[in-house]
Amino acid sequence: MKTDTIFYTLLQNLPSVLFELIEQSPTLALHYEFSSVEIKELARRIDGLFLPKPEYPQDPIYFLEVQFQGDDNLYWRLIIETFLYLNQYKPQRTWQAVVLWANRDLDPGIPLAYQSLLTAGLIHVIYLDEIVDTSSSIGLEIIKLVVSPEDEAIQQAKSLINLVNKADADKSRNLLELVERMLVYKFSSYNRQELEAMFGLTEWQKTRFYQEVKEETELETKLQTIPRLLNEGLTVEQIARILELDIEAVKQAITKQNNK
């Protein structure tokens, strides 16, 4: 999974992180809905949009960009997308743009043409690896985990899980599932059993994410057995019945195998 996708997943599940990053009250997240939106002129979508709820007319729209690779055109693209969105949807609101760089070295600098937007406070630039005090925030701790070197991230992950376990019971399950997604991304070279042992995730198997991955793994195992069953002379219908799969799924697997 791409790193920016990981961050959009984090912000979708824990939108208060954005407001912590720009040093505002995390409770402002209650005023917003996080979404993506289509820009017709560019035939593409803005993935990070914090749109205020109607009952908070004084709050600005936030446009978010997450960048973990060098991109000399990011600011040009961001401002173009922002103004095309404003032209297309014509919201009666102010706006701000937030750019999250993995580190300062990736940032080419805001073009001179847009320096006035920075001065006016309409563009916020944040370097994720420079965030210092994260101990009181689960969201910021997750960000620190993702951007840290793997040898440092192991201990950080353990501290993060302890922090999650101290959260309210109603929140801890969803937070644990979110942390699991980050761990699978961060430690992609480890299998799930190794991750469970490393981090003591005894509740892992109860989460929806674990069940989704388990189902995907079981499906992949079934699909891999189809060629062998075909070689044994079984029909598509027989294979589907034995593996408890749709006939169409079996046909697609066979077609995919034949095209290799």
Structure overview:
The chain contains eleven helices and five strands, in the order ααβββαβαβααααααα. It folds into two domains: about 5-200, no CATH class; about 210-260, no CATH class. The mean pLDDT is about 85. By secondary structure, it is α/β, with parallel strands linked by helices. Strands 1-2-3-4-5 form a five-stranded mixed β-sheet.
Helix share bin: 40-55%
What is the residue-mean pLDDT, rounded to a whole number? 84
Number of domains: 2
Largest sheet: 5 strands, mixed
- Taking all Cα atoms into account, the compactness measure Rg is 23 Å
Tertiary shape: globular
Strand residue percentage:
5-15%
Helix/strand-derived class?
alpha/beta
Q: How many H/I helices?
A: 11
Strand order of the largest sheet: 1-2-3-4-5
Low-confidence stretches: none
Summarize the helix and strand pattern as letters: HHEEEHEHEHHHHHHH
Q: First CA to last CA: what distance?
A: 24 Å
